[in-house]
Amino acid sequence: QVQLVESGGGLVQAGGSLRLSCAASGSIFSIKDVGWFRQVAGKQRELVALIFSGSNTDYADSVKGRFTISRDNANNTVYLQMNSLKPEDTAVYHCAIRTNAFGPFGSWGQGTQVTVSS
Predict the structure, then answer these.
(1) At 13, phi and psi to the nearest 5?
(2) 8, 110 Cβ separation under 8 angstroms
(3) Which of 15, 64, 94, 116 could cross-link to 85 by cystine, CB 3.0-4.6 Å?
């Protein structure tokens, strides 16, 4: 079992920056890929950024060039650096892991709220 705890959300003005953290504990050896997702009430959850076990990354088109996902293996933490934030980035951000390349994401954290004011 892997436990994930997100932090770093908050209220920021448009154009500002935030860095989210996803700290992992438990059976961390089983983690292959880590994703950051966001969800707005009443809308489908969206995959924002993904970091693979080999440290390759992938991003939703809506955040490319603005968000950067990275991992600190020594501290079992994955970060999401968010720059040039827009009001449409407002959401609850969750991290999740998968233990194989084609499996589902799981071990969802409780989420952290990001609010971008215009």
Answers:
(1) -80, 155
(2) no
(3) 116
